[in-house]
Amino acid sequence: MKTIAIVYWSGTGNTEAMARQVAEGAEAAGARAQLIPAAEFGAGQLAEYDAFAFGCPSMGAEELEDGEFEPMFSAVKPELPGRTVGLFGSYGWGDGEWMRTWADDCRAAGIALAAEPVIACEAPDDEACAACQSLGKALASA
Fold first, then answer.
1. DSSP 8-state class, residue 135
2. DSSP 47-116
3. Which of 40, 41, 97, 127 is the most buried (most CB within 10 A)?
4. What does the mean pLDDT of the chain come to?
């Protein structure tokens, strides 16, 4: 059974709700999913998991949250090429530029994404929840 780390930062609860949907999809596909706040995850834990979903909302001028999430992600990013990775997050303004930038940065670092990143405007609606569950299933079956 694969074990999926779902590492996220959530200020309003929207990205946490998405994380729970990713976990639901992974578990429906037969994996074990563990929700982990970004402040509690580090590179030393990578070997414990078969796949990773990273979730962060858009902050400021379309960027990752810089107090906890971005420092954690920068620390683990060099170890992610060759691993199964997915991205998700919510936003309240703009058009999702932060996610496109984040995904492009991952690809430039040699990180192949298991599925297209999932975004939701504000709280995840039915479509976003289904996409999060699909992400979880893709991580479990990759």
1. H
2. GG-SEEEEE---BTTTB--TTTHHHHHHHHGGG-TTSEEEEEEEESSSSSHHHHHHHHHHHHTTPPBSS-
3. 41
4. 96
Angle at which helices 14-28 and 126-141 cross, to 10°: 50
User: What pLDDT is attached to residue 37?
Assistant: 98
User: Any idea what the Cα angle at residue 58 is, between residues 111 and 45, rounded to 5°?
Assistant: 45
SS3 134: helix
**Looking at this protein, which amino acid is placed at residue 122?**
E
Residue 29 neighbours by CB distance under 10 Å: 18
Q: DSSP for 1-42, please give it.
A: --EEEEEE--SSSHHHHHHHHHHHHHHHTT-EEEEEEGGG--
State pLDDT tens for residues 28-73: 999 999 999 999 999 999 999 999 999 999 998 788 999 999 999 9
**By three-state DSSP, how is residue 120 classified?**
strand
Q: Under DSSP, is residue 142 helix (H, G, I), strand (E, B) or coil?
A: coil
